[in-house]
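Technical note accompanying the year-one report. For the benefit of new consortium partners, we illustrate the data format agreed upon in the data management plan: each record pairs a sequence with a C-alpha cell string. No post-processing was applied to the example shown here.
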Amino acid sequence: MTGELTPHEKQGIGRFVAGTVVKCSFCHERVDAGLQPACVITCPTDARIFGDLDDPNSNVRGLIRERGGRQPLPEKGTEPKVYYID
C-alpha cells in the first residue's frame, strides 16, 4: 500500500472525520451538478450503475427489468434505492 488516496477517496476526503461513521450520500453534490457518483466513475469493472429509478425509460430501470434486479432484504420494508443484479 502506497498511502496515496484513490480517486474515489479524493472526491470526498473533506467530508470525513476520523472515528465517525458516514452513510453513503451517492455523492449528492456531484449528482446535483449533473455528474455520476465518484464510486461509479472510478469503478474499474463498471460494477456500479447509477440512474433515475423514477424514470421507467432510464437505462438503470431497463437493466433492473431485464436482469431481474432485486432490493436487499425486501421483507424489512425499507425500500432501499439499491438493487442487486446477477
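Partners are asked to follow this layout when depositing records. The chain is about 30% helix and 0% strand.
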